[in-house]
Amino acid sequence: MKQQEEIIKLLQKGRVRLNPTAALDAVRQFERQYHITLPREYIWFITTVGNGYDASKVVPGRLMYPLEYSGSNRIGQRFPLDAPWFFHTDQCRHPEAEPQYQYNISADPDGLRERVQCGCLTLTVEKKRNLPLEQTVFLVVNGAAREQIWTLNYNSCRGLGSYDRLGTATFLDWLEGHLTGFQT
Questions:
Q1: What is the distance between the alpha carbons of residues 127 and 115, in angstroms, rounded to a whole number?
Q2: Residue 125 forms beta bridges with which residues?
Q3: Which of 58, 80, 95, 164 makes the best surface tag, with the fewest CB within 10 Å?
Q4: In sequence order, what DSSP letters do the residues of 20-38 get, joined into one string?
Q5: Angle formed by the axes of helices 2-12 and 171-180, nearest 10°
């Protein structure tokens, strides 16, 4: 409860434009439609505080997408990861040709890139200023990683990317950091 109060205080500073709240009936319908159960912290926020927000006054381009942004049949499928996954695209130089990359890099022979988009809600997408870097933050809602926050980091110049869990952060932990302008 204390963390929720801190989040409300951050929002009361007037630097965030909240979307209207979602009706609990609509949230339950979303859960039934996609055969998922959303985390309680997330439901509290979108039904009590706001169904997403624009925090561009804190950091340019910073926002949290509303629930319906992630509405697709993929949400009902299992999120496949339980450990970090590094990948490259065919559009750029093959990273194994660069000796500094000593970790396991997948060229996606088993179609994991398609499956990793399942079982999660997109919370935000942020492009790093003046850099070819992009970060997407997900809340996993289906599978063994349920209720975990994961990130997709992608370097468009090199064609390199990674999916990784954001430590032990809960939705409220991520939200508090996102609202105060910390990088996720």
A1: 23
A2: 136
A3: 164
A4: PPPPHHHHHHHHHHHT---
A5: 30
Q: Give the mean pLDDT of 126-145.
A: 82
- The pLDDT value given to residue 132: 61
CB 51 within 8 A of CB 22: yes
Of 84, 83, 79, 101, the closest CA to residue 160 belongs to 101
**Looking at residue 110, what is its pLDDT?**
61
Q: What distance in Å separates the CA atoms of residue 181 and residue 25, rounded to the nearest whole number?
A: 32
* Torsion sign (Cα): 83, 156, 71, 108: negative
| Spatial distance between the Cα atoms of 121 and 72, rounded to a whole number of angstroms | 10
Weakest-pLDDT range from 17-21, 52-56, 68-72, 101-105: 101-105
Torsion angle defined by CA atoms of residues 154, 160, 163 and 167, in that order, rounded to the nearest 10 degrees: -80
- Per DSSP (E only), the strands in the chain are 17-18, 53-54, 63-64, 85-88, 105-106, 120-127, 133-140, 149-155, 160-165
Q: How far apart are CA 182 and CA 103, in angstroms?
A: 27
Contact 52, 19 (CB under 8 A): yes
The DSSP output letter for 75 is G
Predicted confidence (pLDDT) per residue in 61-111, tens digit: 788 999 999 878 889 999 999 999 887 765 444 444 444 444 444 555 566
